[in-house]
């Protein structure tokens, strides 16, 4: 018999939530199927092989108190706030089924009279605009599919946080092995159904998950996970929040300053001289431990 688990986070700290997600993926191997749902306070979350300086207005994010976080998965850069719902499906590879995930999320949304579609790029769209993007990770016998749902996100702050439309700035980078984001027009679910809240979508997904699994689902809290997996949890959380992970893990790239000087950046360090914070005319966040 399959063991299924569902966890709803009561924390909005992105470093806590992504540490919990990683522990569920790496440690909870007795469960063939896990659904994890959470909401982050304002954050920009980017893919494992992305360049935060290329993707994000780091100075704006730092001054606005917006967290930056590098995922363990690939994919593009996304903005999170309390109007965005994050979901993760963690499964044994023998039962992994992306189509079932997208179907479940779509049916939950459609309960509110919203017609959504899943695209070939594995986005979910409403009225031709993106409401959900996904990223994926595979290791050993475990697979992870996680994504976002724009319910009532501050879209003005979203676009201010990202460099996606600043072509002049982006042209100064030679991105090397980093993976750039693909920009897409976006829309909130609440722009079509103004009464809709994140809690409504969360409850609809929970109901759908229970129903599809004939209510044979174990429920745990993130406190249960943390207590059972100290000190590993704290080590992972600290790594997610560290400068070495957020910035130092960026694949090597080069950058041309406004005065025409070329700089090579390796592991966050600038050669031949200079300081990446000033060269990129921004101020990077410090370790948030």
Automatic annotation (TrEMBL):
EC id: 6.3.1.20
GO molecular function terms listed in the Swiss-Prot or TrEMBL record: lipoate-protein ligase activity
Domain BPL/LPL catalytic: 29-217
Classification via Pfam families: LplA-B_cat
Matches recorded under SUPFAM superfamilies: Class II aaRS and biotin synthetases (SSF55681)
InterPro entries in UniProt: aa-tRNA-synth_II/BPL/LPL, BPL_LPL_catalytic, LipoylTrfase_LipoateP_Ligase
Pathway the protein takes part in: Protein modification; protein lipoylation via exogenous pathway; protein N(6)-(lipoyl)lysine from lipoate: step 2/2
EC main group: ligase
Keywords: Ligase
Protein name: Lipoate--protein ligase
Organism: Fusibacter bizertensis
């Amino acid at each position: 018999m399959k063991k299924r688990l569902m966890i709803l986070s009561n924390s909005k700290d992105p470093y806590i939530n992504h540490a919990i997600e990683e522990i569920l993926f790496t440690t909870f191997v007795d469960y063939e199927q896990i659904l994890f749902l959470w909401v982050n306070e304002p954050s920009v979350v980017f893919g494992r092989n992305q360049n935060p300086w290329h993707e994000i207005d780091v100075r704006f994010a730092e001054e606005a108190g917006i967290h930056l976080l590098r995922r363990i998965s690939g994919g593009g850069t996304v903005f999170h706030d309390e109007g965005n719902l994050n979901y993760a499906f963690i499964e044994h590879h023998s039962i992994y089924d992306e189509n079932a995930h997208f179907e479940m999320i779509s049916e939950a949304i459609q309960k509110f009279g919203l017609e959504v579609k899943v695209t070939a790029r594995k986005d979910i769209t409403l009225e031709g605009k993106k409401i959900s993007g996904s990223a994926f990770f595979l290791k050993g016998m475990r697979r992870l599919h996680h994504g976002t749902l724009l319910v009532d996100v501050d879209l003005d702050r979203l676009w201010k946080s990202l460099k996606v439309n600043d072509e002049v700035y982006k042209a100064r980078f030679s991105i090397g092995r980093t993976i750039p984001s693909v920009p897409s027009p976006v829309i909130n679910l609440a722009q079509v159904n103004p009464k809709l809240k994140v809690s409504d979508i969360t409850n609809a997904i929970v109901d759908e998950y229970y129903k599809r699994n004939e209510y044979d689902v174990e429920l745990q809290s993130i406190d249960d996970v943390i207590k059972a997996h100290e000190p590993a949890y704290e080590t992972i959380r600290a790594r997610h929040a560290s400068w070495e992970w957020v910035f130092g893990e960026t694949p090597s790239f080069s950058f041309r300053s406004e005065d025409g000087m070329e700089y090579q950046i390796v592991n966050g360090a600038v050669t031949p001289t200079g300081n990446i914070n000033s060269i990129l005319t921004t101020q990077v966040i410090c370790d948030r431990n």
